[in-house]
Structure formats: C-alpha cells, structure tokens
Write a structure and sequence with these properties.
With about 170 residues, the protein is an alpha/beta fold. The chain has helices at about 10-15, 20-30, 95-100, 105-110, 120-130, 140-160, and strands at about 45, 55-60, 70-75, 85-90, 115, 135. The chain has a six-stranded mixed sheet with strand order 1-4-3-2-5-6.
C-alpha cells in the first residue's frame, strides 16, 4: 500500500473519514501546492528538462472536453517515470516553441531524433527547437497514406467513388 497511489476517497470506508475533505486538505495544506514554483503556469504548460533524451516523440492529444495539448516525451523512458519532457496547452507552433526554448539550448542540441506526425506545425516545432534532430514520421501516418494510395486504383477499377471508400478498413 505504501508504494501504490490510491485515492483518498478509498480510505473513507476503512477509517471512517470524509475522503473529499482529506483530498482537499492534502492539496491545500500538506502538498505545498500553493508554493509550487510552476503553479502560475501549470495550466498552460509544464516542462521537465531533466527528462530530455536523445530520442523524443511529439504529438497532440485531447485530454478532456476537446482541449488540445502538445506532448513531448522521452522514448527511452518507455512511458514510465521520466518520460514526460513537456506538456503545452494548444498546438500553435509559436506557443510550443516559446515554451520549449526554456529548455537549455545545450540539452535541445543533444536530441538526435524526434518522432512526429505529418502536421506542418509539428515539423516547424522540431526544426526550430531541436535543430540537430532528424525527423521521423510515425508509422500510423505512413500506413494511412499507403492505404489511401492503394485505394485509389482499386476504386477506379471497381467503379466506386473515392469519397465512398473508408480507409479505416484498410489499416
């Protein structure tokens, strides 16, 4: 129990206490959240320069309610502790570049490879922030392009409209 995180609300049943109040008390008093240096900008961006490695990934994702975030991870950490390099609200390349430039240039220059999707904004971010890194397009997007390219001649031979073909069936 000491090594696995559990929600405070799960303690209600065993210790006869208000779990919501315990969580609130922990956040506001015990955790030093109010004195956290990143508290001012934590809703907009967080960076962890110590997690920067030679092989990174960058992608955008929607965490909740359709809000888009750009996430940069260290591939060597394999989604474990130390994998998050940065999380930035939005996908605007200029905003992401401004935040990533807070990481020391020396660290950013050590990056050898960045895996990204085919979005122009991601390419611009990688080119400006990690100038020594080669850009690798992730496999999913390459497969989708290949499937789309294969569907065109098949559709023509079978008399289907290209707009009526579902590429998801291919990949």
């Amino acid at each position: 129990m000491d090594t696995y995180p559990i929600p405070a609300q799960s303690l209600e049943k065993y210790y006869h206490m208000d779990g919501v109040q315990l969580e609130r008390h922990y956040k506001e008093h015990l955790s030093n959240f109010k004195h956290w240096q990143a508290c001012e900008h934590a809703l907009e961006w967080l960076i962890f320069p110590e997690n920067t490695g030679t092989h990174l990934s960058i992608d955008e994702t929607s965490l909740s309610n359709g809000e888009l975030y750009t996430i940069i991870t260290n591939k060597a950490a394999k989604c474990r502790k130390g994998s998050l390099v940065a999380i930035i609200e939005g996908t605007s390349s200029e905003k992401v570049i401004n935040v990533l430039e807070k990481i020391a240039e020396e660290k950013r220059n050590q990056v050898k490879e960045v895996t990204l999707d085919m979005a122009e904004s991601m390419r611009r971010i990688v080119r400006r922030c990690f100038p020594n890194a080669i850009r690798v397009i992730d496999r999913f997007h390459v497969q989708k392009l290949a499937c789309d390219a294969l569907q065109l001649p098949i559709a023509g031979m079978q008399g289907y409209s290209v707009n009526n073909i579902k590429t998801a069936d291919c990949c």
